[in-house]
Write a structure and sequence with these properties.
The complex is a heterodimer of chains A (about 350) and B (about 450).
Chain A (H helix, E strand, L loop, with lengths): L13 H7 L3 H18 L29 H8 L3 H4 L2 H20 L2 H6 L1 H16 L8 H7 L2 H17 L10 H5 L1 H5 L17 H23 L9 H8 L6 E5 L9 H5 L6 H4 L16 H5 L6 E5 L2 E5 L2 H11 L12
Antiparallel strand pairs in A: 1-2, 2-3
Helix pairs in contact in A: 3-5, 3-9, 7-12, 9-13
Chain B lengths: L6 H4 L12 H15 L9 H12 L11 E4 L6 H6 L3 E4 L5 H7 L9 H11 L13 E5 L3 H12 L4 E4 L8 H22 L5 H24 L9 H10 L5 H21 L10 E6 L8 H8 L3 E6 L4 H4 L10 H13 L11 H13 L4 E7 L3 H16 L4 E6 L6 H28 L1
Parallel strand pairs in B: 1-2, 1-3, 3-4, 5-6, 5-7, 7-8
Helix pairs in contact in B: 2-3, 5-6, 6-7, 8-14, 9-11, 12-17, 15-16
Classes of the chains: A mainly alpha (about 350), B alpha/beta (about 450).
Chain lengths: ~350, ~450
């Protein structure tokens, strides 16, 4: 047997050990902040990453955006007249999807947990709540199970309504229907001082209904994500789209059910209340439809190698006893005086 | 044994014999002498624990612990962090003495568990019961197995204030989780009433840091047992974890950390604590509690080495660690509740998939050659799980020896024969496997 680290398990190199000991909370904070600044203000530096980004880099943030959320062009493209859509223009739809897919497979749902400005915003609201000492709320198991279809329905509507417009059944007032109700459209432009989206469009009935709903959902978004961690992600159609095409993604969350003690730590810290992460000991691919790949579960797992993050099958971060303890002591605010073990 | 350090010997009157000549003390002494003297090269750091058991169990000294209310626990599923957080000190009352088992027999039906009977027997002795910690201000009795549940009322009849901590007997469902979290919160309220101190974020955080340090020490010890050749014998580890039942938390942790350091040195020196080719045994089932370390002792006297265990007097008590996402009192208490329910592999639950998976994982991880399954006669839940556990282990090719026993020393001769035969069969299997490997 090769030399084992002090905490048992596999032999470890220094770099690997440092990575596994990472303070994920602060790593994520800085990563998300950087991504937020890039996607919300990158446009001022003439950064343009195209129109097919797999997260809510909102296109309505016209000046600051460094790229556009794929849902906006997708809905536009699908609303073309059918004779166009099912001929040459169809190629544009396919290349658009292809580019979206290429972006997506790199990070998988890591786009949600690390990149999405709207996700980051929710995490900031959570931090704000924590500072006020208010406890978080949970959906609970029953509402969770009862509501998990919502995002798929939103995704379906988001595709069907534009198709209906193209087919002449719906008016163009209902164009880009999801964007009209998306809180990202209202909130993100505010960060560049653009308040034009903070209105209800009274020019048409369809527009009025959708943008009115948008304002209501924005209010829900702000209140909801203050009291419930990642409130909105549970309903996100982008998240649903991700899940449908996630199979070939490169970044993977893996679980070794055989070494899992089912202690439930991963479920306990999960912002999305995903029970399966703790209870499912059969599936190797641990990412579910609601997962945001925030990797908090990996950081909260004390069992060596039970939860793992792989990139193109290469192990980049895994649960270790040492890392778990480091993070727990840090969280308890006692890395200096609580842990007296000598290294 | 010097009389000067024996407070019990100062109150010797002509009609009460000295404590160290009582049946309880004799029984403890015989066991401790075996554990210490039958083996050469015991770790130096074990001396603390040998001395502790000698003082507490044989000389009947009062355990030196922090003052403040003393809260007895009849099971490891009561969150001890909450007890520390209100400024009280927990003591695990589960008892391993045959002497107390016989006294406790008056309370329970003939075919019941030695552990429950011994616990009642010890409590019947009131403050003279060993380990002595003075007056018990409260007993918390998690509603786990039937025998412990019914014992709660008997304890109340003996004059102890008992809090029944409602524990679900299904652990998979969300309903049971929520029910248990509520029950733990009620316990927290009861504890606050006991001491008049509120559980604050700061106090609970400090309490959790104390138990975490102890768990870290235990995990380090646990991890070192993976080594082959073995650095330490299982009988010593059971003494260490048994001491956790009643010892002062910090003193225990420091002593365990010292043992860890010594074992690391042993590792560096290439030390072997067991015989060469000693069969590596995983211990499971009813918990060995001093002085009933009969089975681990017999295994190691017969040339095996207990490398890991799945029992509530050792691994299950100290291995799993809680996580906290948001350091606020409510969430911390819920996290503790989860920690005391979710990973628990107690046989009182409806299903035992987790226990079976855990055994396979431990057996693989610790390179165990076989499993010894102890069931106390009358402990129905362990007896009933025997079949399924044996099948699971058999399916993956790990031999298991099932032993139904109790606290009586009468069956030691017969057990020795069975254990020796089991260890022999393991050695034969390994020889055959090697021979096959060579010829292939």
């Amino acid at each position: 047997m090769a030399a084992m680290s002090e905490f048992g398990g596999q032999p470890t190199s220094r770099i690997r050990r440092a990575v596994n000991n990472v303070d994920l909370q602060s790593f994520r904070f800085w990563f998300q902040l950087t991504a937020f600044v890039l996607f919300v203000y990158g446009g001022y530096l003439a950064i343009d990453l195209g129109n097919n980004l797999p997260m809510f880099s909102c296109g309505y943030n016209r000046e600051g955006r460094a790229g556009v959320c794929y849902l906006l062009p997708l809905q536009h493209q699908l609303a073309r007249p059918w004779e166009q859509l099912f001929s040459a223009a169809g190629i544009a739809v396919l290349t658009g999807f292809g580019l979206f897919f290429l972006w997506f497979i790199v990070l998988n749902k890591g786009w949600c947990g690390f990149m999405c400005p709207l996700g980051t915003l929710q995490d900031w609201l959570t931090s704000l709540r924590k500072r006020t000492g208010i406890r978080y709320s949970l959906y609970g198991e029953k509402p969770f199970n009862a509501l998990s279809w919502v995002k798929f329905v939103l995704l379906a509507l988001m595709i069907l309504i534009p198709l209906g417009i193209g087919g002449g059944w719906f008016s163009h007032d209902m164009g880009v229907p999801f964007c009209q109700i998306c809180p990202g459209r209202v909130v993100l432009p505010l960060f560049t001082g653009d308040t034009t989206q903070l209105t209800v469009d009274f020019s048409s009935i369809g527009g009025m209904v959708l943008t009115g709903l948008g304002m209501f959902i924005t209010g829900m978004f702000l209140i909801g994500s203050f009291i419930k961690k990642r409130f909105f992600c549970f309903f996100c159609p982008m998240s649903a789209l991700h899940y449908l095409v996630a199979k070939p993604a490169l970044l993977k969350l893996k679980k070794d059910g055989e070494t899992c003690t089912k202690c439930g730590n991963c479920f306990n810290v999960c912002d999305m209340e995903i029970r399966a992460i703790a209870d499912d000991i059969v599936k190797k691919d641990a990412m579910t439809d609601d997962c945001t790949l925030c990797l908090k579960c990996v950081a909260a797992c004390p069992e060596p190698g039970t939860l793992k993050v792989e990139f193109a099958r290469f192990n980049i971060f895994e649960s270790t006893e040492e890392g778990f303890l480091k993070r727990m002591n840090k969280g308890a605010g006692c890395d200096a005086h609580c842990d007296t073990r000598k290294h | 044994m010097t009389p000067t350090v024996t407070p019990a010997s100062t109150d010797v009157s002509p009609d009460t014999p000295a404590f160290n000549r009582s049946r309880q003390a004799r029984e403890a002494e015989v066991m401790l002498d075996h554990l210490v003297d039958d083996f050469s090269e015991n770790p130096v750091a074990m001396q603390y624990f040998y001395d502790l058991f000698r003082k507490v169990y044989i000389q009947g000294e009062q355990v030196q612990r922090t003052t403040g209310p003393q809260v007895g626990m009849t099971c490891i599923q009561a969150p001890e962090e909450l007890i520390y957080a209100v400024g009280a000190t927990p003591i695990r009352l589960c008892n391993g003495s045959y002497h107390y088992d016989q006294i406790g027999a008056d309370f329970m039906p003939a075919k019941s568990c030695s552990l429950v009977k011994a616990t009642l027997g010890r409590l019947h002795d009131q403050e003279k019961g060993v380990p002595r910690i003075g007056k018990l201000d409260m007993i918390v009795n998690p509603s786990t197995c039937d025998q412990k549940k019914k014992a709660g009322v008997m304890m109340e009849d003996m004059g102890y204030p008992v809090h029944d901590l409602e524990f679900p007997n299904v652990k998979e469902s969300e309903a049971s989780r929520v029910y248990w979290q509520r029950s733990v919160r009620d316990f927290a309220v009861r504890l606050q009433q006991l001491t008049g101190k509120k559980i604050t974020r700061k106090k609970l955080n400090a309490a959790m840091a104390r138990t975490r340090r102890a768990q870290i020490a235990f995990r380090a010890l646990h991890n070192l047992r993976r080594k082959a050749p073995s650095l330490v014998l299982g009988k010593d580890i059971f003494l260490v974890t048994n001491a956790y039942f009643f010892d002062d938390l910090e003193r225990w942790t420091v002593a365990t950390e010292a043992l860890v350091e010594e074992l690391k040195q042993r590792d560096a020196d290439g030390f072997n604590a067991a015989q060469k080719k000693a069969p590596r045994i995983l211990f499971t089932g009813s918990p060995p509690i001093f002085p009933n370390l009969k089975l681990p002792l017999l295994i190691e006297e017969a040339g095996g080495v207990v490398v890991a265990d799945e029992t509530c007097s050792a691994n299950r008590m100290l291995y799993d660690m809680p996580v906290v996402d948001e350091w606020m009192v409510n969430h911390m208490i819920d996290s503790l509740a989860d920690h005391y329910l979710k990973p628990c592999t107690c046989p009182i639950f409806t299903r035992n998939d987790d226990r079976r998976r855990r055994l396979i994982d431990l057996a693989r991880d610790f390179n165990a050659d076989g499993v010894v399954y102890q069931a106390f006669s009358g402990c129905q839940v362990y007896e009933m799980e025997q079949r399924s556990v044996a099948k699971t282990l058999n399916d993956v090719g790990i031999p298991m020896l099932y032993i139904e026993t109790d606290y009586s020393p009468d069956d030691m001769g017969q057990l020795t024969t069975r254990i020796e035969a089991f260890l022999e069969s393991i050695k034969a299997r390994k020889r055959q496997a090697r021979a096959k490997g060579v010829s292939a």
